[in-house]
Amino acid sequence: LVMTWYPTLCLLVMTCYDMVHYGHSNQLRQAKAMGDYLVVGVHTDGEISKHKGPPVFTQAERYKMVRAIKWVDEIVEGAPYVTTLDTLDKHSCDFCVHGDDITLTVDGEDTYAEVKREGRYRECRRTQGVSTTDLVGRMLLMTKAHHSNLDNSNYQQHTDNFGKGPKGHSPWTGVSQFLQTSQKIIQFASGKEPQPGDTIIYVAGAFDLFHIGHVDFLEAVYKLAEKPYVIVGLHFDQEVNRYKGKNYPIMNVHERTLSVLACRYVSEVVIGAPYAVGKDLLDHFKVDLVIHGKTEVFPDKDSSDPYAEPKKRGIFRTVDSGNSLTTDDIVQRIIENRLQFEARNQKKEAKELAVFEAMKRQVEGAVSGASARAAH
Question: How far does the signal peptide extend, from start to end residue (predicted)?
């Protein structure tokens, strides 16, 4: 039963949420739509290492990332890897929710077997076109094609090597092209207009691989005003590549849009924002403050200062979030632990494939038995 201080229907999601991306956020959005109050259990580093392999982010980073997703009401730190009825009851939850893939223990057991048997399990659809495996593969490969053309043979060969076990692909792990739709943006967007008395704050950047450094910055920006309305300007991929160089961005602008919209500190996103924060943009959105972090400000194509206009108006400020983590740092973590991550994903793939084959044999056996009975 739901405790009296909770709303009518309480749902529990248990997860690692390593490399939190818009696919995870979409799972939480769907879960929240099934009830009134969403509790998210996040596993420790030790539990993830035992059952899956080394996490990319620390548990403290993962706890904070999940708290920043706007559909989450409460998180449980150090949640057990296997979800039991006791876990649901302890946190006063009616059901647990998971995606339509499968999560296995180190022994290859379904972590939701008990709650499924008791009818306290609900399922949501996995978001096509993104996975932690895919993102890690992009970082290891870092080709200019990774965010625009998944048909690229080098990329496909690399992701096959990275995520594929010796006996083929699991249906729950793999790479497919992400296709943006207007409906998906609507589902993620708040839909709220600025209200009288709101302080309209504008920030701009790539926000690539949306991570805890971005969250800390946006939280610091959000706290600058009593009634903040934070608008994030996202630069197009070509613009990001111009000033970031190498083979950035890792995520394309459509993926970055959903990642930023899922953050509870963000009210609106400008997709393909101009690099220079000029008069037209400031007047159109009636911007009160323009904020930049402590990272370097790269000049515009004509070598001018992209923040010249807000500085002229006296509305430009820099904010120190206290977190120096960058997308470069995350890529470096992946590269330094490349062999561990490759082994982790191949092991995960092999376990999933074994379960999938067993499920297929079970279905085939049931169909065969039904046909035999019908023949008699």
Answer: 1-25
